[in-house]
Amino acid sequence: xxxxxxxxxxxxxxxxxxxxxxxxxxxxxxxxxxxxxxxxxxxxxxxxxxxxxxxxxxxxxxxxx
Amino acid sequence: xxxxxxxxxxxxxxxxxxxxxxxxxxxxxxxxxxxxxxxxxxxxxxxxxxxxxxxxxxxxxxxxxxxxxxxxxxxxxxxxxxxxxxxxxxxxxxxxxxxxxxxxxxxxxxxxxxxxxxxxxxxxxxxxxxxxxxxxxxxxxxxxxxxxxxxxxxxxxxxxxxxxxxxxxxxxxxxxxxxxxxxxxxxxxxxxxxxxxxxxxxxxxxxxxxxxxxxxxxxxxxxxxxxxxxxxxxxxxxxxxxxxxxxxxxxxxxxxxxxxxxxxxxxxxxxxxxxxxxxxxxxxxxxxxxxxxxxxxxxxxxxxxxxxxxxxxxxxxxxxxxxxxxxxxxxxxxxxxxxxxxxxxxxxxxxxxxxxxxxxxxxxxxxxxxxxxxxxxxxxxxxxxxxxxxxxxxxxxxxxxxxxxxxxxxxxxxxxxxxxxxxxxxxxxxxxxxxxxxxxxxxxxxxxxxxxxxxxxxxxxxxxxxxxxxxxxxxxxxxxxxxxxxxxxxxxxxxxxxxxxxxxxxxxxxxxxxxxxxxxxxxxxxxxxxxxxx
Lengths: 65, 534
Ligand SMILES: Cc1cc2nc3c(=O)[nH]c(=O)nc-3n(C[C@H](O)[C@H](O)[C@H](O)COP(=O)(O)OP(=O)(O)OC[C@H]3O[C@@H](n4cnc5c(N)ncnc54)[C@H](O)[C@@H]3O)c2cc1C
Description:
- The structure holds two protein chains of two kinds.
- Chain A starts with 13 loop residues before the first helix and ends with a helix.
- Chain A has helices at 14-24, 30-48, 51-63.
- By secondary structure, chain A is an all-alpha fold.
- Among the domains of chain B are: 15-91 and 120-196 and 294-363, 3-Layer(bba) Sandwich (FAD/NAD(P)-binding domain), CATH 3.50.50.60; 415-529, Glutaredoxin, CATH 3.40.30.120.
- Helices cover 27% and strands 26% of the residues of chain B.
- The termini of chain B are far apart.
């Protein structure tokens, strides 16, 4: 049973989210941006918590590149 | 050859240059682009005389705007040219999005049935302008279009505006109570008045070409990120009438516009895209885009509308479409002021409501342009990640942004809607009126929007025990069941009509106020608040 959400979870606000994400990187150099992304990913992973879901997300990310 | 033939409109020596006295006109419109022409027609429908001045004598050279939205078509229909545009235009609703050579997804604009006008048509700007000019010529007593009349100076007096104008026969001045600056993105009026035009310029260059091709490609919008046939970041192909296709190729920030415009540069790029199909180049231009707006559109007696007031990048087709909405919003107000029915304060609501529209358009088109032209490594990384996920993950398709197409702007809680009566469960004040199929004395196959607009009007669903008697007699009313029948039940559905429900509708087909139980007093108060009464 798949746990990873594939449909839109932003309730119609996906453009707002994307703008927020890009704005967060404003003024950072590449290294700072990478570090920000890593911290962000850890925060979001902790929010999800469920290892099966996270494993599925990791697999999907690995496969779609 | 199906290509458009530009014919020039006749220049005539202005009567002022032959001496004698001439009555001042109520309104001078500077610029005979789509926005200025629409304004002249809208004001003529309110019996307001205008002189339209344009420095040129032909319609837009090259098509520029091609996508016209449903809301614009509804406004054009109110002006009497909507059907002609739909007949000539190409109706489309499907878009396909590719990443490299793989189709990532397609979308259907989901044209909900039961609207007179389609979601979008493609129609070259020169056709749109020609149809508008021909419509304007149907008002010879009200609209005086003066080609090759260039405005060179503007001066504002307490009771009038005075314009200095140059023509092939010499210079003259003309006075009016109001002047509309519809003179485009490089507005000379804005320049002469030294007014601001703040915003953001994007560095990316785009090659825009209209080509003629004898191929029956589908009416779909095709968009590529990182196309295999072109070294730039994106490409677009879209069909127009007369076998003309719009091609848009992103060239990068370092492109040399003069070089890139040359046929020997354009032809191989287009050939690669079309896979060797024969074609002819109709029009080519190389652009960079900007998102800017004036802080205020109303400067006493000089009012800005269309590109002179705000510009956006073309992804989303928001430029021309928003200019037409400006006119829809402005003209009934200006007419009410000129006819003494409203105070000049009413014009402030144009400023507020349309600045809001411009902000919405600038936000959407800046975001689209950013997505298409990532400016840092990280932005690029996220853009590519979205595209890679989009094939498999529906959520990521929503993040792909190749232009969020123009939608009517809602005026809820703003401008004239502030403090208006609203009814729970009904459309809120400020909502653009949805169309619905109806049956009327005019036709068994009629449409609601053809009966709204132009002036304030009531839409009322009787309660069966005499609710009509409580409507104010001096306001025109559309009574469901009496004046129109709800052909498919969609009127009831879209307006949440129940027994006794009343809407007051603005002349620009937006809800002004709503009541579950109305009486004449409240309706007249709402009318006054919405600017219907002096
Ligand atoms: C490549 C491209 C693609 C586009 N695609 C779309 C699209 O798909 N959909 C959409 O809605 N919009 C689109 N747009 C935007 C659209 O073309 C403009 O928003 C629209 O032309 C604005 O109309 P306007 O009447 O305000 O100004 P204009 O069309 O620029 O007209 C201004 C008029 O004023 C005249 N004028 C200027 N100065 C003076 C003066 N001093 N005296 C007298 N006359 C003067 C000019 O000659 C001109 O006729 C696109 C634009 C570009 C460049």
